[in-house]
Amino acid sequence: QMTNETLKAELGNAAWKLFHTILARYPDEPTSEQQTHLINYITSFAQVYPCGDCARHFAKLLEKYPPQTKSRKTAAVWGCHVHNKVNEHLKKPDYDCSHILEDYDCGCGEDEVKADK
Ligand code: FAD
User: Fold this and answer.
1) Closest residue (by CA) to atom 26 of ligand 1?
2) What CA–CA distance (Å, rounded) separates 110 from 41?
3) Could you tell which of 86, 99, 105 is best to mutate to test the pocket of ligand 1, judged by most ligand atoms within 8 Å of the CB?
4) Which range has the worst mean pLDDT, 28-37, 44-53, 91-100, 102-111?
5) pLDDT beyond 80 at 7
6) Which long-range contacts (CB under 8 A, 24 or more apart) does 4-13 make?
7) CA distances from 103 to 7, 8, 25, 47 (A)
8) Ordered DSSP codes for 21-75
C-alpha cells in the first residue's frame, strides 16, 4: 500500500498534466462558446477535485486569479501561474512559464490540422 502522500502526489501530477495540456491546446482564437466551455471546465475541476483542502484552496485561487480565456497563450500562461501559486503554498520551486506551450504537447497536432480543414 502506497502512502497517502504518494497517492496524493500521483493524483496531483496526473491532474496537472491534463490541466496544462488542455490549456496548451485550447484555440488561439476561441469563440465565446469555447471560452464558456473552458471556464466551465476549470470551475468544475476546482469543485470536484478529490482532496478537500486542495479543492478549497484552489477555489480561493480562482477567485483571486480568474481564468484567462481570450487565447491559447493567455490561458496556458494563466494556468502556469496558478500552478505556481500552489507550488508556492507547498514550498515547491517556481516553474518557468515562458515555454509552457512547447512543454505540453498532446501528440495530436495532426488532428488539429485536420480539424481546421
Ligand atoms: P506537480 O506540482 O504535481 O507538477 C507536475 C509536473 O508539472 C512537475 O514535475 C513539472 O514538470 C510541471 N510543473 C510544475 N509547476 C508547473 C507550472 N507552474 N506550470 C506547468 N507545469 C508545471 N497538494 C497538497 O499537498 N496540498 C494542496 O493544497 C494541493 N492543492 C492542489 C490543487 C490542485 C488543483 C491540484 C491539481 C493539485 C494540488 N495538490 C496539492 C497536489 C500538488 O500540487 C502536487 O501535484 C503534488 O504535491 C505533487 O507535486 P510534484 O512535485 O510531483 O509536481
Assistant:
1) 54
2) 24
3) 86
4) 102-111
5) yes
6) 8/51, 11/50, 11/51, 12/54
7) 24, 23, 11, 26
8) HHHHTS-SS--HHHHHHHHHHHHHHHHH-S-HHHHHHHHHHHHHS----SSHHHH
pLDDT-based confidence at residue 74 (cuts at 50, 70, 90): very high
As given in the structure block, the three cell numbers for residue 111 are: 488532428
Atom of ligand 1 nearest to the CA of 92: 51
- The CATH classification number of 4-116 equals 1.20.120.310
Cβ pair 16, 83 in contact under 8 A: yes
User: In the prediction, which pLDDT does 56 show?
Assistant: 92
The finding on whether 104 has its CB within 6 A of some atom of ligand 1 is no
